[in-house]
Amino acid sequence: MFGSLKKIARNFRIPTPEEREMNYLNGSHDRIDLEYRQRQVDRGLFRSKY
Fold first, then answer.
1. Mean per-residue pLDDT for 25-50?
2. Where are the domains of the chain?
């Protein structure tokens, strides 16, 4: 019973900024795209303060 509740709770969890950055970088198609995405991450694309 608790196993299924854990699975449901895991689906509603919000990804951390580090996880979003890694997913974004892993989506690159080639080296040039990866370097472009790394520059965007370095500029704070996912770490904006509200």
1. 90
2. 15-50
Taking the C-alpha atoms of residue 32 and residue 24, their distance in angstroms, rounded to an integer, is 14
- From residue 11, give the alpha-carbon distance in Å to each of 7, 8, 16, 25: 6, 5, 14, 22
Query: What are the residues whose beta carbons fall under 8 Å from the beta carbon of 47, sequence distance 6 or more?
Result: 17
Are 47 and 17 in contact by the 8 Å Cβ rule? The answer is yes
Residues 6+ apart with CB under 8 A from 23: 15
Whole-prediction pTM? 0.70
Average pLDDT of 6-28?
89
